[in-house]
Design a protein that fits this description.
The chain has 12 helices and no strands. The chain is mainly α. The chain has one domain. Helix 4 runs antiparallel to helix 10 and helix 4 runs antiparallel to helix 11. The longest helix has 31 residues.
Length: 297
């Protein structure tokens, strides 16, 4: 019961974090958003660490670092594809892939898989087709670029979950500390490199165009606030998922985590008024049903 509670709570908070990150990435670079979120999330972890603790070991540092690399790639791709949109389509696609990866790794390790699991995988594939490739005229179709980014994001998020699960049971928040540190370092380096490349450009015609394309001070302030809030929500979700992994199985927690599009879709429908076609709605229901079935596999 606690595993399900932590998994579902973490999934909803993840969905809220993704929504905030996707909005921020419409005004800032997804790399910048990921780096800022890593910083604000680290502040949350520092505040909570005295109450939770954790044993620092080479294994905890290793797996935490691996999760930081995979998380940096996965979250950057996720925020980028959500910025392209539609959020209500690409988020479930990412979630299905992020659930399949840990399950596949578990199968490769020799884990048993009940028949309902195979049925769930088939259902998930049907859901992906309905969600991403419906022929209806009023359908909000994602671009091929958005779909590919969502698949890449889901795969690396799945690796992130595997790495966090592989950390020692007594490591507490240590893997998450390393995750944030490595994540922030990678994103900081990417943003700095992009800044230096931009400064080297000497095209006089490009300068005024790029300046006019930049958001104003108010837009930058709003984007920064969204990125900071995204980091806080993401850190909270990571803590909930870590608790679920320590209490239960990787396969169950990873699939429950894959229900996070519910939070994104709810917020996207309320705030952005995103509309989806009937067949896409069926696909979304099937995707969430597949994730629920996988938790029983």
């Amino acid at each position: 019961m606690l595993v399900t509670l932590f998994g579902l709570a973490g999934a909803f908070v993840y969905g809220a974090a993704d929504f905030l990150g996707g909005l921020a990435s419409r005004r800032l670079s997804p790399f910048a958003v990921t780096g800022i979120a890593a910083g604000s999330g680290a502040v949350v972890l520092v505040a909570v660490y005295p109450f939770v603790g954790g044993n620092w070991s080479a294994e905890a540092v290793l797996w935490g670092s691996i999760s930081g690399v995979s998380g940096a790639i996965g979250i950057s791709l996720l925020y980028a594809c959500l910025a392209i949109g539609p959020m209500s389509i690409l988020s479930p696609l990412t979630a299905v892939i992020s659930a399949i990866v840990p399950l596949s790794i578990g199968l490769a390790r020799g884990s048993a898989f009940h028949p309902i699991g195979y049925a769930a995988l088939a259902l998930a594939l049907v859901a992906v087709v309905l969600v991403g490739f419906v022929p209806e005229k009023d359908a909000v179709r994602p671009s091929l670029r958005g779909i590919l980014m969502a698949i890449g994001s889901g795969a690396t998020i799945g690796i992130f979950l595997v790495a966090i699960d592989a950390a020692p049971a007594d490591s507490g928040l240590v893997p998450l500390f390393l995750n944030r540190a490595v994540n922030g370092a990678i994103m900081g380096a990417v943003v700095l490199a992009a800044f230096l490349v931009a400064r080297r450009r000497s095209d006089a015609m490009a300068r005024p165009a790029s300046a006019s394309a930049r958001p104003g001070a108010a837009g930058l302030g709003a984007a920064l606030a969204l990125a900071l809030a995204c980091g806080v929500a993401d850190a909270a979700a990571n803590g909930l998922i870590l608790a679920g992994l320590r209490l239960g199985e990787l396969s169950v927690t990873s699939v429950l985590t894959a229900l996070y599009p519910a939070g994104t879709i709810i917020l996207a429908s309320i705030v952005l008024k995103e509309r989806i076609a009937p067949l896409q709605a069926v696909g979304l229901v099937l995707a969430l049903a597949a994730a629920a079935m996988l938790s029983l596999a």
